[in-house]
């Protein structure tokens, strides 16, 4: 479905997320929403000192100076003659469009303003709006702006304070006029990076962190560099692409090698993608079939064919610079797979986790002739060293044994077959961490605490299905506000108020994003992880890194009295189970960085135990304004 916005026409195919509902417009956000506080018997944090708009009633901007956001050190703005990065292009969801617009024309915070909101972009109804409120009708604010019983004073157009808030062309230092700062000279590795041979799970490097927090992390330039092989050809599966930027990440000697882009864009979005590639004859395309409404091609994977062999990288980052800049991302990098001797049987090169079979099955699900050659290449290589299980989603409705091929039922089968019951497992919490949220239903039993929890609590073949604690990690407004990117980081967290208002019950599960263990508390997460932890959070029963957010579109939902499952989107991830590593559980690594030597402890990317939202915390929602406190760059958030 195409819609018009200030950025021109764009195709609605929800973004880095996959809501089951179409992604709403920022201008249609007049709906009530009340946030409940956590139960009194549960631990809460009190770090958030800013009361953001309580949904469901008019709010007026308080005239006070908020606590300043924490100081975050980043590299100083480079001089203009050293800036080589092009301005970011607007790609992806409407939430990302809003973030792009905010970066290009930030709205400055002014504590002396009677209404900072009026200094922003929403000025179509100046005479009736002095704050921002949600009501049941789109017309309520226009016709009866005093729904709370108090009449809002009209704005004083002659007030010189209102004129102080001016819109700048680019964000101020430390990001500079092209928004991005250059990476330090020692940011990229010049020799083989420290390789975690045990788990092969890595976080992306983050610009602006101390060097030790990037030691052992990987950047896309390193992944594609000769450090890992002499590249002959590659495939990039993803949702968002900036093709010019992506090709610049390949080293010069590999830049003209053939690249196949597997995408899910249609109509106008597809035309724009193809137009991006016009200058590059080495780029070809494969369009993934998306036959079910609101599905996306959300898989993020690289297939890298070298002179020396073949490699698979499964990751959480889009092929755009913003995703490799100041966000927390994760990836699994396979070993180098060597070519099998000629004449090897079909079953040769298989791993104990059947990774080769499952990868071939996933690629076959595209039914795309452009991928046929790659399927044959994989058959000719030895994948026997792989110790993770592949978990994919492909669009369709599946019956019988096919129900366990994809989505959360695939995860359930693997947990049933390859884990075992644990004493007191009802006390082992389930943890889900994600960057977007789909429609869960009117209450928790509709999906989350029903079929999905049944999957996440599976341990071995036991018929016992306990009801352990469930901790869901999703950034609060303050997490976003105080991040390295500031409010624009929320463009990659496209949870909308229209979805949130339908599932108030969900917010009692929410926990803050805190990642001191990896130095990434201020690098907002685009990574998605799910795991089962011990009551003291020192052990894991399993761990999953994936592209799949918390949505039925990504994971699938049972239909027709549980006789079939419907999956809307393409997703891909890898599952770690202790038995594949000859272990009973994974010990949790307490200090992940610097990662200079292999470890048998698992590098969970955020702090455990998670910190529950306090009564003042609210989940980030991209399409409502946040004007009461400035972000780390002195700006407020007023989505168009």
Automatic annotation (TrEMBL):
* A GO BP entry: single strand break repair
Output the Pfam families linked to this UniProt entry: Tyr-DNA_phospho
Q: Where is the composition biased (Polar residues)?
A: 42-51
User: What are the GO cellular component annotations?
Assistant: cytoplasm; nucleus
Query: Which molecular-function annotation in GO is an example for this chain?
Result: exonuclease activity
Q: Where is this region: Disordered?
A: 1-182
* Compartment list: Cytoplasm; Nucleus
Which residues does the annotation list for site: Interaction with DNA? 551
- Source domain of life is Eukaryota
Q: Where is the composition biased (Low complexity)?
A: 22-34
Cross-referenced InterPro entries: Tdp1
- Asked if the keyword Phosphoprotein belongs to this entry, the reply reads yes
Q: Which residues bind substrate?
A: 300, 528
Q: What is its main location?
A: cytoplasm
Print the keywords alphabetically: Cytoplasm, DNA damage, DNA repair, Exonuclease, Hydrolase, Nuclease, Nucleus, Phosphoprotein, Repeat
Q: Which residues form the active site?
A: 298, 526
Q: Which family does it belong to?
A: Belongs to the tyrosyl-DNA phosphodiesterase family.
Protein purpose: DNA repair enzyme that can remove a variety of covalent adducts from DNA through hydrolysis of a 3'-phosphodiester bond, giving rise to DNA with a free 3' phosphate. Catalyzes the hydrolysis of dead-end complexes between DNA and the topoisomerase I active site tyrosine residue. Hydrolyzes 3'-phosphoglycolates on protruding 3' ends on DNA double-strand breaks due to DNA damage by radiation and free radicals. Acts on blunt-ended double-strand DNA breaks and on single-stranded DNA.
On subunit structure and binding partners, the annotation says:
Monomer.
Q: What is this protein called?
A: Tyrosyl-DNA phosphodiesterase 1
Taxonomic path: Eukaryota, Metazoa, Chordata, Craniata, Vertebrata
Gene that this polypeptide is encoded by:
kcnk13a
């Amino acid at each position: 479905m195409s819609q018009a916005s200030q950025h021109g026409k764009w195709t609605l195919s929800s973004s880095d997320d996959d809501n089951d509902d179409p992604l709403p417009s920022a201008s249609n956000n007049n709906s009530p929403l009340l946030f409940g506080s956590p139960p009194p018997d549960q631990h809460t944090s009190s770090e958030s000192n800013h009361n953001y708009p309580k949904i469901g009633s008019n709010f007026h901007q308080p005239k006070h100076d908020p606590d300043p956001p924490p100081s975050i050190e980043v590299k100083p703005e480079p001089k203009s003659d050293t800036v080589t990065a092009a301005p970011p292009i607007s790609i992806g969801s409407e939430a990302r469009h809003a973030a792009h617009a905010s970066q290009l024309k930030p709205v400055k915070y002014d504590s002396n303003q009677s209404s900072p909101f009026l200094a922003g972009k929403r000025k179509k109804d100046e005479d009736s709006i002095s704050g921002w409120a949600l009501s049941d009708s789109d017309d309520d604010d226009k016709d009866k702006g005093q729904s709370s019983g108090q009449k809002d004073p009209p704005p004083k157009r002659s007030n010189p304070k209102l004129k102080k808030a001016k819109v700048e062309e680019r964000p101020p230092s430390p990001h500079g006029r092209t928004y991005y700062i250059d990476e330090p000279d020692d940011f990229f590795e010049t020799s083989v990076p420290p390789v975690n041979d045990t788990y092969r799970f890595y976080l992306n490097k983050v610009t602006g962190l101390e060097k030790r927090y990037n030691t052992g992390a990987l950047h896309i330039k390193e992944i594609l560099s000769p450090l890992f092989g002499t590249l002959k050809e590659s495939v990039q599966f993803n949702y968002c692409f900036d093709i010019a930027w992506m090709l610049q990440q390949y080293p010069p000697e590999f830049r003209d090698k053939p690249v196949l882009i597997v995408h899910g864009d249609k109509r106008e979005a597809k035309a724009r993608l193809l137009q991006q590639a016009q200058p590059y004859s080495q780029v070809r395309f494969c369009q993934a079939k998306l036959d079910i409404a609101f599905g996306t091609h959300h898989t993020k994977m690289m297939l890298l064919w070298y002179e020396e062999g073949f490699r698979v990288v499964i990751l959480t980052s889009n092929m755009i610079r913003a995703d490799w800049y100041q966000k927390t991302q994760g990836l699994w990098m396979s070993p180098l797979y060597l070519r099998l001797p000629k004449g090897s049987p079909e079953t040769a090169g298989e791993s104990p986790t059947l990774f080769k079979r499952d990868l071939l099955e996933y690629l076959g699900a595209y039914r795309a002739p452009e991928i046929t050659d790659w399927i044959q290449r994989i058959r000719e290589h030895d994948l026997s060293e792989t110790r993770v299980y592949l978990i994919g989603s492909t669009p369709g409705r599946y019956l019988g044994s096919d129900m366990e091929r994809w989505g959360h039922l695939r995860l359930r089968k693997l947990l049933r077959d390859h884990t075992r019951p644990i004493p007191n497992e009802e006390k082992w919490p389930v943890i889900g961490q994600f960057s977007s949220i789909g429609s869960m239903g009117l209450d928790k039993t509709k999906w989350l605490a029903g079929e999905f929890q049944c999957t996440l609590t599976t341990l071995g073949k036991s018929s016992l299905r306990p009801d352990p604690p469930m901790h869901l990690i999703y950034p609060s407004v303050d997490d976003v506000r105080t991040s390295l990117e500031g409010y624009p980081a929320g463009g990659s967290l496209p949870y909308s108020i229209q979805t949130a208002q339908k599932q108030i019950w969900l917010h009692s599960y929410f926990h803050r994003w805190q990642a001191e263990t990896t130095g990434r508390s201020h690098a907002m997460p685009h990574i998605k992880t799910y795991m089962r932890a011990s009551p003291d959070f020192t052990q894991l029963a399993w761990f999953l890194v994936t592209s799949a957010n918390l949505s039925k579109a990504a994971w699938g939902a049972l239909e027709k009295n549980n006789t079939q499952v419907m999956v809307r989107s393409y997703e891909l991830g890898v599952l770690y189970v202790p038995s594949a590593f000859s272990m009973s559980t994974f010990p949790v690594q307490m200090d992940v960085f610097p990662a200079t030597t292999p470890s048998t402890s698992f590098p969970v990317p955020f702090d455990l135990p998670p910190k529950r939202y306090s009564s003042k915390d609210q989940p980030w929602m991209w399409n409502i304004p946040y004007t009461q406190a400035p972000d780390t760059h002195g700006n407020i958030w007023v989505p168009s």
